[in-house]
Write a structure and sequence with these properties.
This protein has 4 helices and 6 strands, in the order αββββαββαα. The protein has a 6-stranded antiparallel β-sheet.
């Protein structure tokens, strides 16, 4: 949402979407053990983990764009995914800078407390944390990708119009 200006909408190429494809309804999966359980600490895996954020970021972006009427936008030079002109997934800038490290932001009205209990997850800035938004670092030890996808869906459901959530639920039936 660019202050004072029109909303710029980057269309997703129809060829990038599979006809009728949408994300499968996900249910929160908790109790899988501590984040990063089973990860090694050798230098090679540490370096691979530092670069894994790109893969996770792209997975989150692609998953979010499969929801009904979701589209990518670039306000403030950052990547976000919106529905009905409202952001439901913050992905930040393409490359890390001195002021920005890879992270994702989602609105979690139900899982907010659970998310904040994980290492590195913090309330989002600019007062968004008071409304249930959390920022998840994409470097270091990450939560399971399935859990991140659950959170993206929860955020979509929190922000999307009721008719789109109902349509999503109807497809599951």
């Amino acid at each position: 949402m660019t202050p004072g200006g029109p909303h710029v909408r980057d269309e997703v190429c129809p060829a990038d979407r599979t006809e009728g494809a949408r994300p499968a309804r996900r249910t929160a999966r908790r109790g899988r053990g501590p984040p990063g359980a089973g990860k090694t600490s050798d230098p090679a895996s540490t370096m691979a983990g530092m670069e894994k954020w790109r893969e996770v970021r792209e997975t989150l972006r692609e998953f979010a764009l499969r929801f009904p009427e979701a589209y990518e936008d670039h306000p403030w030079g950052e990547t976000v995914v919106k529905v009905n002109k409202k952001i439901f997934l913050f992905l930040g800038v393409e490359e890390p800078t001195d002021k920005w490290s890879p992270s994702a932001g989602v609105k979690l009205p139900e899982s907010h407390g659970h998310a904040l209990a994980l290492d590195g997850v913090r309330p989002s800035g600019y007062g968004l944390g008071r409304s249930g938004w959390v920022t998840i670092p994409l470097t270091g030890t990450l939560p399971e990708t399935e859990l991140l996808l659950d959170w993206v869906e929860e955020s979509y459901r929190a922000v999307a119009p009721k008719k789109l959530v109902a349509a999503l639920d109807a497809q599951d039936a």
